[in-house]
Specification:
576 residues; alpha+beta; Potassium Channel Kv1.1, Chain A; Serine Threonine Protein Phosphatase 5, Tetratricopeptide repeat; Neuraminidase; 3 domains; 4-stranded antiparallel beta sheet; 19 helices; elongated
């Protein structure tokens, strides 16, 4: 023994110059948890039994306390559970408890989708904050118009503030779809009131809000009719077209017999009649609360060498690509297209044999084209534009021998057409658009010559008046409104296809030439999109193209736009 002590002393003297010894086992934590997991699986050294739904789970207090503040408080305070060997947990499923306990030992979990809400409930109750946050993120990725209301309520109960805010924002932004869901129909008054009172909603007009309100009330009319006036007060009636106010709101039987509701309608009618912008009018009621979700461009119909198509291409700015979407019921070339009330209306055109009078409407909610009432007259190469809640079909021809100056007006509520005053000139292959409460119609072919003349329709007088003519004669060209100005693009003048562009400012009452496109385009599709003018497809010297160009009014120049899927002419563009 003495010799060994001397030997150790001698060794110590010889190691005085050694540095500090340091060692870390990179696998220690993993090995430790693996050993704990093995103890858990084999029920070794377990010191606590948890019970849920009558079934038991044995575990280790130290492991549970290290993973959950709930268990740490339970086992480390003076609560009676500290001294118990068996603890029953209520309002929690056995599967969720088992999942969380297993996570304590493995740091992993996997549950089927139908159990995710039970898991979040358990994680919230037992204070597994990491699991609660991760399940909230997962649920956020699964929010849809059919479940966002229920998820918002669930998130509120469990203090999941981020999930609640996300689902409520989703419901507001997708209101037009949410309002048709079963969950909206079953929602209680406070939920509907809160949603409808939002200062921003994903709607095309206040008509969507009114329809949502009536949809909810009529689901349980006896119990919900008492809320009629309260909910109608949330509809910004003064933003509705007078036509919508009378045809859609005032004529609703439940509204007509409610005194408070009729008073609100009369106030709105007075506002429209007198433009009564008094201090009694809340500014909020006069402000739009529409949320403009990502708009998409739809290219409808078209033809290649007299082969007419019913295909529809859609462009998404987010994807920066075109894709084929639900096609028309019948092929259409040179039809009239208009976006209104969150839908696309396509009417007339030709099928390579004759002019068409039929109309079909695309509703993105159900992804279908459905026929509506036909025009009184078959029309090819017409234009359709919306004014004050009516759709106007203007000009066109019979595809063979005759051009039209006649116009018709479509009532989307009653689904019928009526004849309107004719233009001063026949116009086939014209452009028409609405600006400042009047309709402008320009260019086209009258059967004798191609026109540069412009006329405007004033609904207050019911008459057409000539306006300042364009610089070029044009037919089969495109037009659009952007920043309160009219743009006309391309077209042809007899045998000459055009690449010229003009802009009309109604305040200055004059046309201005703009930079020309990079190529000549006849039968081109033109629309305003994302603060630019798009010119898509068309033909030059009878050769179709799938190329596109975009004009930026700030930079005052044209740039290449994403090519379409196919080269066509005679298609029409709409933005929705």
């Amino acid at each position: 023994m003495h010799d060994r002590k001397c030997e150790n002393h001698n060794m110590t003297e010889r190691t005085e110059e050694f540095d500090m010894f340091s060692y870390q086992n990179a696998y220690h934590q993993t090995t430790l948890m693996d050993n704990f997991n093995e103890f858990y699986q084999t029920q070794t050294l377990c010191d606590i039994t948890l019970v849920a739904e009558g079934r038991e789970i044995r575990a280790h207090k130290t492991v549970l306390a290290a993973c959950s503040p709930y268990f740490a408080s339970m086992f480390m305070s003076n609560l009676k559970e500290r001294y118990q060997d068996v603890i029953e947990l209520k309002n929690i499923t056995f599967q969720s408890l088992e999942t969380l306990i297993s996570f304590c030992y493995t740091s992993r979990l996997e549950v089927p989708g139908e159990r995710i809400f039970d898991l979040l409930t358990a994680a919230d109750m037992l204070q597994f904050s990491v699991i609660k946050e991760s399940t909230c993120v997962y649920i956020s990725s699964k929010v849809t118009p059919s479940n966002c209301i229920e998820i918002s309520v669930f998130a509120d109960v469990h203090n999941c503030n981020a999930l609640k805010e996300f689902s409520e924002t989703f419901a507001r932004e997708n209101f037009r779809h949410v309002r048709r869901s079963e969950a909206f129909k079953e929602a209680d008054f406070s939920q509907v009131y809160q949603l409808m009172s939002s200062p921003s909603l994903g709607i095309t007009s206040e008509k969507d809000v009114f329809e949502a309100m009536m949809f909810w009330i009529k689901h349980d009319q006896d119990a919900r009719e008492e809320y009629l006036a309260s909910l109608l007060s949330l509809v910004r009636l003064k933003q509705l077209y007078p036509k919508e106010l009378i045809d859609c709101v005032e004529r609703e039987p439940l509204i007509a017999k409610n005194t408070k509701c009729m008073q609100m309608i009369n106030d709105a009618k007075t506002h429209h009649l007198l433009c009564d912008w008094t201090i009694d009018d809340p500014l909020l009621e006069l402000q739009s609360r529409s949320i403009h979700n990502e708009a998409k461009v739809y290219l409808i119909g078209g033809e290649i060498h007299q082969k007419v198509f019913k295909s529809v291409e859609m462009y998404s700015m987010a994807k920066n690509e075109w894709e084929l979407v639900r096609e028309l019921n019948i092929p259409r070339d040179g039809c009239g297209v208009c976006s209104y009330d969150g839908k696309i209306f396509a009417t007339g055109g030709c099928d390579a044999k004759e002019a068409l009078s039929s109309m079909e409407v695309y509703d993105p909610h159900n992804d279908k084209w459905e026929f509506r009432s036909s025009m009184n007259q078959a029309r090819h190469a017409l234009c359709v534009t919306e004014l004050n809640g009516w759709l106007y079909a203007i000009g066109g021809g019979n595809f063979t021998t005759e051009e039209y100056s006649s116009t018709e007006r479509y009532d989307p509520v009653r689904d019928n057409w009526c004849n309107m005053p004719a233009m001063n000139a026949k116009r086939e292959g014209l452009a028409a658009m609405t600006l400042d409460g009047v309709i402008y119609a320009m260019g086209g072919d009258n059967g004798v010559c191609i026109l540069n003349s412009v006329e405007r329709f004033d609904p207050r007088t019911g008459k057409w008046y000539f306006s300042t003519p364009m610089g070029f004669r044009r037919r089969y060209f495109g037009g659009a409104v952007l920043n309160d100005k009219i743009y006309v693009v391309g077209g042809s003048d007899f045998d000459e296809d055009l690449n010229s562009v003009e802009c009309f400012d109604p305040r200055a009452n004059r046309w201005q030439f703009l930079p020309s496109m990079s190529m000549r385009r006849e039968s081109v599709a033109v629309t305003a999109y994302c603060d630019k003018i798009l010119a898509l497809g068309g033909a030059c010297i009878n050769k179709e193209t799938n190329s596109g160009e975009a004009y930026d009014p700030i930079l005052n120049k044209w740039e290449a736009f994403t090519p379409m899927l196919s080269a066509k002419e005679g298609m029409v563009a709409a933005v929705l």
